[in-house]
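Quick start: what a row looks like.
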Amino acid sequence: MSIKSTIATATAGAARWGLRSVLHRSGGALPGKLGLAIDPELVTHLAGLLDASVVITGTNGKTTTTNLIADAVAASGANCVCNRAGNNMETGITGALLEANSERRRTAGTRRVGVFECDELYTVRILPRLKPTYFVLLNLFRDQLDRYGEIDHTQDVIAQALASSPATTLIFNADDPLCASIAARVPNPQLPFGIDGAVGTETSHIAESRFCGQCNGPLEYDYIQYGQLGAYHCPSCGWERPRLASFASDVRLSRTGYTFDVSMSRKGTHDVARLSTKYNGLYMVYNITAAWTAASALGVLDDAPSRFQNVLDTYVPTGGRMTRWHMGGREVATDLAKNPVGFDRQIQQIKTAQGRLMAFFLNDAEADGRDVSWIWDVDFERLSATPNIRAFVGGTRAHDLQVRLKYAGIDARIVGQVGEALASVAGEPATETLHVVANYTAFPPVVKELERMTEDGSATSGDTTAVHDAVTAVDGTAERVPASMAGAADEAAPSSVADAAGTPEAGASAPAALDRPLRIVHLYPDALNLYGDGGNAIVLARRCAWRGIPVQVDDVRMGDELDLSTADVVLIGGGADRDQLAVVNELRSQRDKLASYIEQDGVMLAICGSYQLLGRSYYMGDTRVEGLGVIGAETVRGEGRLTGNVAVASDLLPHNLVGFENHGGRTKLDADETPLGAAVVAGTGNNGDDGFEGCVHRNLIGTYLHGPALSKNPDLADWLLARALERRVHAGDAKAAALVPLAALDDAYEHAANEAAMKLLG
């Protein structure tokens, strides 16, 4: 090593000794941070310590897969160098290498294998320096969009990382077209893995992108496992799921978990093992298949491929994940979920277990992502039919969760901590499990409280481990709402908000039936689905139903005929650049229909990217894309992105509009166009300069507000519905006149969420 790297390792070693010997703390990321400050190329200098290495990345399952591979390496007798604590950025990986360097004499003569979890965006820093033997790419789902940006950006970063280390073998989830499209772009040797055949145990409406990675045409699926994962092909250009080199098959789900075969052909050999896991969730089958494939490729299973079952039998999830606690006779099941697909998998498990006691905790710290609109893509509706639900919500964004559950048909009470939820269900049968799901920084406080209750003797826990050092715990409390809103602490919550907070004010007259339902047309939810904008359709439909107004929601998907002749409200959301380009190309042939609808006072809400494409032009990277020219606006490129919580003061409405913006384009309205309102926070809005946000063009509203836009802004939702009904009246529908003005609803939850959002802005 160079003099600089020698100084760096010595300094980092001193810091590690001080942390452990004096402060009695684990090393964490600090030694790596100090070492890199002295020698930015320290990973390159330390990489020679390893005989082989594997880097694991992806949105979900990184920690589980990393630890399974590390356990398999250790079981083989090799010395495993691993950032098990979850410090998955450059400092954490460097810290693990520094630890190995300090023990190189003790482990001399033993094969050293590095197994490193890596944050997706840090792969571009790690791969060119470490030059790993293998790189495992698990999946790509939307996650922390305000930090990562759209998935296209994450794909570009990973492809660049792989190109910088061309000898690294890519082990990738071929069932995910987003991963497969990266594999198609890079020259690396490849081992595609997946599940062979439809499992049929889990599906979901969530999908990040179902577009071809080659021609951008819509993909067709032979079957879908969940999200966008499955067997796909492109009818336009013929691109399809790569042939699987390693795969799980004969997947069977029982009360005790999954059993399945794993197979891999390589170098003239064919490895096969029958595996089982006690952990439910099809994602675990993917994680285990990835880990088994990597372990086999590393050669640590050469003498006995089936020995991996011993690894699974002794595996204990870290930090309280997938843990069962026994609290005063009641079981509490805890797990972490930090994005729509991960959360949806937990909902599926609660549904499968017929759970009716549940608590969800949501934070918006920097490590979580400030934008929480993704909760509207979680299929909470699957739980609403469960009888006698007792639901609780907490965390810094508890109000957002409360509103989301309300529109799913579930009345949830806000609690400060998990112990409060546990105490509230004390009168329920002890056989009922309390299911607790929390996102990234909300999860450690849940685990710590359960551990404290165990230490105090008030409960006994099952398998538990220390909370990740890498996660900084934040206060998971939320402001309490009045008992009149949340329900008494010891009384069962209503199973449907139709009985609680959603019905019209007392005394409201019963509405007259319409000749036909109010028709809400949701444009391209299969493509423009990035920021929870499907929640706008949920909100409008629920608010109609609570008032007794007949309503239907029609989804128009790519390739469908666009019929706006009977449309009352049109919704269109935001999406990734590639998906948005597919939509604008589709809409060009339908442009006259859309323009005619708008000019005839058709009611429409356009969010973010779709707001841009309604103008004359916008940019995708450096390329100018011709828009539809329906409104007088141009969107140009800007320096950086406008990202964060925002508020808008609009003359249309009595309350400030709140939401979250995340856009790189700068939209400039023509002089004869009317802004939706004034940006409350300087430097936000259409372009960050003129102080305006959004656009009102006849009955069209364009805005950058995510959240989704209507969830915490019920006045805006009702403005759209009122305009739609008034348009019916003007067209001669006398029955619609009886519905205007709209009957008032109890919007206490929504207004509380609005006020909480305003507090975030100070």
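That is the whole record. Confidence is low (pLDDT under 50) at residues 459-501. The first helix runs from residue 3 to 22.
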